[in-house]
Amino acid sequence: MTDLPALDAGAPDYLGDTRRWIERAVIGLNLCPFAKAVYVKQQVRLVLSDASTPEALLEELAEELLRLRDTPAEEIDTTLIVHPFVLEDFLDYNDFLDNADAALDALDLQGLLQVASFHPQYQFAGTAPDDVGNFTNRSPWPTLHLLREDSVERAVAAFPDPDVIVERNLETLEKLGVEGWRKLLRD
């Protein structure tokens, strides 16, 4: 596991792609109105996982959960584990989320931390693969997002009507369209 992007000029820039997605889509389109504050304060930890098996990713997930638990929120409020070498298939990724929840239980972190999910092929149940609403959870690379429950609760409490976020995001993405989304994330 590394915090640095690949140095090979021909290799994908996994963390750079993820930063661009955060800046242009998550913050730029205001898909998550809570993201900007922690991002500009540099309280978002981006981790590039070199895991190539679900078991290795689960070990890294446990390490990062404990790191987040043990680090003051002023230093790290949230962590994104970008894992491009494992769980590339969305169905496999989705199945893995049960293991992520089991890790939270095993580490006695339920109610303290949570794991949110983002994937390039993300598809909500009952939607078509090309449904633009799926793009609210589509990231450039498979990503596990570790969040502090108390930070989520404070952010939601400070937002006048959090239920509006989902509706607004769908409207934003419908206006943007699939091609507009792709263009947004291109260099």
Return the structural class.
alpha+beta
How many helices does DSSP assign? 6
User: How many beta-strand runs?
Assistant: 4
The N- to C-terminal Cα distance equals 26 Å
Which percent range describes the beta-strand content?
5-15%
Helix content: 40-55%
Largest sheet: 4 strands, mixed
Unreliable stretches: 1-7
Characterize the overall form: globular
Mean pLDDT: 93
Q: Strand order, biggest sheet?
A: 1-2-4-3
Reading the helices and strands in chain order gives HHEHEHEEHH
Question: Can you tell me about this structure?
Answer:
With 187 residues, this protein is an alpha+beta fold. It is built from six helices and four strands; from the N terminus they run H-H-E-H-E-H-E-E-H-H. The two termini are 26 Å apart.
How are the SSEs placed, and which strands pair?
Blueprint: H1 14-27, H2 35-40, E1 44-48, H3 54-70, E2 78-82, H4 90-106, E3 113-118, E4 143-148, H5 149-158, H6 163-185
Helix pairs in contact: 3-4
Short recap of the structure:
This protein is an alpha+beta fold and 187 residues long.
Quick tags:
187 residues, alpha+beta, 6 helices, 4 strands, globular
